[in-house]
Amino acid sequence: MTRPPLSHPIAALTLALTLGATARHACAGERWITSWYAAPQPAWDAGFALPMNVPAQVDNATLRETVRLSAGGPRVRLVFSNRYGHEPVRLGAVHVGPADDPDASRALTFAGQPGAAILPGATVTSDPVTLPVRPLSRLAVTTWLPAPTTVASFHWGAQQTVRLAAGDATRAGPFAESARFGGRLFLNAVLVEAPAAARTVVVLGDSITDGNGSTPDADRRWPDVLAERLAPLGIAVANAGISGGRLARDGMGRSALARFEQDVLGQPGVTDVIVLLGINDIGWPGSPFAPGEPPATLDELAATYRQLAAAAHARGVRVTAGTLPPFEGALAGTPYAGHYSPDKERMRQQLNRWIRTAGAFDAVVDFDAVLRDPGHPRRLRAAFDSGDHLHPGDAGYRAMAEAVDIARLLQ
């Protein structure tokens, strides 16, 4: 039988259907999960209590960021976000490779092109690149921003250092660093190709989940330690914590309820979320962070938790809630004093009691019981305290991760 010319409508339709079936077949053989994540936050102005500590603008410069994956796989894809931007962000070139050998990096493409423009409010996902990565391995991501780029969407802190070099430094050779700062710029996620049984646990939280108080650039946050426990089981951990994050109200970022769809339910492979939020809802009102804000109420916090659980359960995602750690004396003697008070402590106790007994969650992890001083339960145990009486240090974060019942995550 002679095939009709491509200009023939039947031939064109046949070719389109054939190519579409081929593409669907190729995509059907792929499965991706989130192996690393950094939740975006909107930029704030100089009137806020904390500085952003990142450049207001980057122009013809290259960023080098190191990430530690949780799960591994034969191929990777990178996701970049401009969630809170008001103008496109242009990626001129992006390379990714082993952190201990950046010269072995691979150039990424986006829909077959070497760069991409991230529209305001959007993300871009790279094409897959063959780069076999092991669980818990570190990658170096090198991104050239060729045009003046306003930093309107970023990730604050995270105990991670970004290195900056002038011009296009994505190619092999020494990275001529001209500046460095903490946080993340535009890099949002690393996806890995994974077998059918692999999946992702998302951890949703605030600065305690983001790792404040842990050793910088050492991956010692409690989600990092949880990832070490789950890696042999083929389960990834995505850290969706943001410093200043709050449950029911906006803080240094949108409220948990506002960002839940993008930061949790939208993650490829997610089956579980662990939520540790509420201490900023309680501590911020009346402090330098929110001096005129009325105190949080138990009804407000409980209703928000129930909404998160309902949204997760509607998508088949299980929810584990963590009790709030002690915080007596939090930030005392600093410009941010006022985070703690006896009334706020009573609210923490009420919320923890509700979390333990409400039956709203699939599981509860009692971080309060793990971290509190047995002789003075309103404060952190000294060995677990980073020194500011709010954030645990490395030992405290390890104790938190070890308190998670991973058997429940395997069910």
TrEMBL record:
Transmembrane segments: none annotated. Gene3D superfamilies: SGNH hydrolase. Residues 1-28 form the signal peptide. Residues 203-399 form the SGNH hydrolase-type esterase domain. Keywords: Hydrolase, Signal. One of its GO terms (molecular function) is hydrolase activity. It holds the Pfam family Lipase_GDSL_2. Coiled coil: none annotated. The keyword Signal applies. The keyword Signal applies. This is SGNH/GDSL hydrolase family protein. It comes from Telluria antibiotica. The lineage of its organism: Bacteria, Pseudomonadati, Pseudomonadota, Betaproteobacteria, Burkholderiales.
